[in-house]
Amino acid sequence: KKTKPVTIPEPFQLELDERGVKRLQEFSQKVEEENTHLKEQAKFRANPAKVLHQEPFCPAKSSKPLTDISGFELNTEQRSHKRENFEMHKKAREAEIEAAKRQRERQKEEEEKAYVAKVRAEAVHKSQPIKRFKSVEVLPSDRPLTFAESPKFETDRRLRSKVNCF
Questions:
Q1: Residue 104 zone, left/alpha/beta (φ > 0; ψ -120 to 50; rest)
Q2: Rounded to 5 degrees, what angle do the CA atoms 153, 158, 160 make?
Q3: Residue 147: half-sphere exposure toward Cβ, Cα within 13 Å
Q4: Which runs of consecutive H residues, i.e. helices, occur in 5-154?
Q5: What is residue 90's predicted lDDT score, i.e. its pLDDT?
Q6: Would you give the distance in Å from CA 20 to the centre of its chain?
Q7: Spatial separation of the C-alpha atoms in residues 111 and 103, rounded to whole Å
Q8: For residues 46 and 43, what is the distance between their CA atoms, to the nearest angstrom?
């Protein structure tokens, strides 16, 4: 028999592992750069005091002429005029509404008075004329007359049965 050679296992070489190692190295490098940058910024470096040797700041006078203040209208005045107009329109509307309300009330009162007058007129008693109907004719019957018979109650037997029960 021929024997086959035994397979020798080799470790996997995944791209994922390679990328993970690369990212870890990049991250550690960034952290180191940030730390060095922060250390550099933390160092104190004083600038020379130039202000002590310079002349103080003096603002230059303006060459523009002064502002001419003439005829102006404040916004509050415009607003007050608008508010007055609004108040006048509002009062006029309220007056119209009030007039319409009074008119409705007057009309309602008139309708109530008319209704009361109508109900009172209907409530007055008026005599009804006697109605004339055809007279009723009584016809004789073909059936024979009935004769009364006394009922045969069995009260004695009932009373006797009650006495025996006690």
A1: alpha
A2: 130
A3: 1
A4: 15-42, 75-123
A5: 98
A6: 57
A7: 12
A8: 10
